[in-house]
Amino acid sequence: MDDGWLHLLLDEATPEQLIAHRDRLLAAAPERAPAVERDTQAALALRLQLEQRRQRATELAALNDIASQLTTLHDPAALLTEIAAQARRLLGVDLVYIGLVSGDNVVIEVASGAFTSRLVGLSLSRTEGLMGRVMAQDAPLWTPDYRADPTFPHTGPADVAARSENMRGLLAVPLRHGGRMLGAVCACKRQERTFSDDEVVLLSALAAHAAVAIDNARSIARSKETVAALEDANTELARRTDLLERTLRWDRALTQVVLRGGGVRELVAEVSESAGCPAYFVLGPDEVPAGLGGHRDAVASVFDALDSGADRQVAIATREGRSLVGREVRAAGDRLGVLLLLAPSDPVPVLPLILERATPAIALALVGERAAHEAGRRARDALVVDLITRPAPTADESQQQFRLAGLNPDRRYTVAVARPESDVARTRSQIEDIPLPQGTVVAEHGSRVIVLVPGLAPAAVLEIWTQPDTAPTVGLADPAGGGEGLARAYSEAQQTVDVLETLGRGSQVAAASRLGIYRILLSRTGRAELTAVTEQMLGPLLREQEQRGVPLLDTLASYLEHNRRHAATAADLAIHANTLYQRLESIDRLIGKQWRDPDRALDLQLLLRLRSGACRLD
Q1: For the chain, which end, N or C, has fewer CB atoms within 10 Å of the first or last residue's CB respectively?
Q2: Which residues form a coiled coil (predicted)?
């Protein structure tokens, strides 16, 4: 990549400016078109990644600033107003309202961006609307169009308020602190809106800050209600202030890790340092890290307790006299894993809060890593598809194509094409679990999964092949090398899939060499066309055969196979010559005597072979 790209990226050039730079390079040196295109794609990808990181840093910095601002507000009404205004600004929505639990109901205390005054003061059942469902499930939920969503009963005061405010896209996250459900925060767009995982995590993080601040403000308000409780209130305020300062320090530390480009491992290390005890991120009970090898039963108990839905955070005593504290890491309602702390037998009270503060940051990092992984996987798939569909014209370019696709230009590969009826991603995942040789490359191309296996012939691949439960139709070509060779092999494998489906052998696996001439004859012929031709030329014989039970098709096939020799045909069918003449007369009557013409006879013979091709190939 030349220096011009770097200068443009440093100057935060727009995509249009990058494309313009590409056009200038192409105009100056057309022969460098492939390299210029690669540099262009790399520059665009790098710019997108820098923009995403800058956006994430901006959001985290804004979240940190908001948390600092919330600590300065002690009036409950002012605090709720500030939370709603900041949430509306941070997510770029039209309306944000906050409902707090009051007995058996939820009362909407504040609304930012409301059209009318109907929302504020509205008292709803704790089971009503999206807000009630969020608090019942203790997990974020969203709908792209609340008013058209059939899963909600559109009756009662909640629906009246939704119509008056023209609520469409709606996201709600719970307000929870210290094991208590405080209420929920709802963000609304007045158009249909799909909320991303990042937005869900962002509002959840703000809600976590808000929950602490709301609880703190309530404590301060309660402390002013009676002089007799002033000392206790001051003590509690000091404790909570200290806890909030610790929370902010943890948040700043976690934010710095993210800003440095750190991932889940660095965030877990920061949690371990803050908590003063070992921390681990575990995907499931069967994937226990080495440090928890002696606590497998406790890890399993943590997951069982979380699966029961009692709470998102649990503490389990281990056999060694310690305590394993775990909290779910969630995004968009899905569990991504569990953050575990191996603490002393009597855990420090702040450990649950450390987990509560850390899990949103880890969830955000995981979502980012998954997005980056998915982008990388799609890029690799595109390189593989480019290699087998548009091989490079020169040896140097071909070698570069191979290297970019993760293939060895000096090796030969068996190319397999798998086409499921649905769920290509699941088919790919299960194919990747097959114990194929090292260096095997798997890619998606539209509705197909492409597999390039080094060092094995199709027969050897078939021996170790495990058919996915999506039952794809699979074709394998003979081993090939080089760009042109792999392109031909891919075409043969694809033709094999087409032929298997045409012959009614979908969901089967076959090598191209087993299909012989059928791969050529049927590669572009659909089963519907073959059925139509069969009905046109042989339909009367089929119906007569079914009604009378006379094997007219077998008679016709044998007669043509024996070059229309009567004696040989009668011997092959083990019938008398007169019987043969009677059957031939029936064939004349049903489809006309023109079938005896050499050209027409050849057509019929080929059609009869194609009809029996599926069973002959087995």
Answers
A1: C
A2: 220-247
Output the average pLDDT for the chain. Answer: 82
Report the SS3 class of residue 469.
Answer: coil
Please report whether residue 380 resides in a domain: no
Same domain, 121 and 139: yes
- The H or E element that residue 482 is part of is helix 482-502
Same domain, 221 and 75: yes
The answer, yes or no, to whether residue 355 has pLDDT greater than 90, is no
pLDDT at residue 228 tops 70: no
Q: Is residue 409 within 8 Å of residue 403, measured between CB atoms?
A: yes
pLDDT at position 614, please? 41
Kindly report each contact of residues 36-41 with a partner whose C-beta sits within 8 Å and lies 24 or more positions away, as own/partner.
39/1, 39/2, 39/5
Domain end among 225, 249, 279: 225
Of 477, 497, 522, which one is at a domain's C-terminal end? Answer: 522
- Full DSSP string of 236-289: HHHHHHHHHHHHHHHHHHHHHHHHTT--HHHHHHHHHHHHTS-EEEESSTT---
Residues 239 and 365 in one domain: yes
Write out the DSSP string of 52-97.
Answer: HHHHHHHHHHHHHHHHHHHTT---HHHHHHHHHHHHHHHHT-SEEE
**β partners of residue 112:** 96
142 token code pair? 């969203």
The closest of 455, 39, 413, 174 to 405, measured between CA atoms, is 413
Most confident of 366-380, 442-456, 582-596: 442-456
CA distances (Å), 583 to each of 69, 297, 568, 587, 598, in order?
Answer: 97, 78, 15, 6, 19
Number of Cβ within 10 Å of residue 590's Cβ equals 17
Q: Which of 4-18, 406-420, 480-494, 593-607 bottoms out in mean pLDDT, i.e. has the lowest?
A: 4-18
C-alpha 135/C-alpha 137 separation (Å) is 5
Q: If you ran DSSP here, which 8-state letter would residue 480 be given?
A: B
Phi-psi region of 564 (alpha: psi -120 to 50; beta: other; left: phi over 0): left
Q: In this structure, what CATH number is given to the domain that contains residue 440? A: 3.30.70.270
Same domain, 215 and 257: no
Instruction: Supply the pTM of this predicted model.
Output: 0.41
At residue 135, what is the residue type? M
**Angle at the Cα of 445 (from 443 to 449), degrees rounded to 5?**
55
Does 144 lie in the same domain as 42?
A: no
Q: Give residue 48's Cα distance to chain centre.
A: 20
Whether 136 and 129 have beta carbons less than 8 Å apart is answered as no
Q: Report whether pLDDT(95) > 90.
A: yes
Domain extent at residue 362: 235-371
Closest CA to 207 of 175, 178, 183, 180: 175
pLDDT at 591: 87
Residue 468: per-residue pLDDT: 93
User: In terms of domains, do 88 and 135 share one?
Assistant: yes
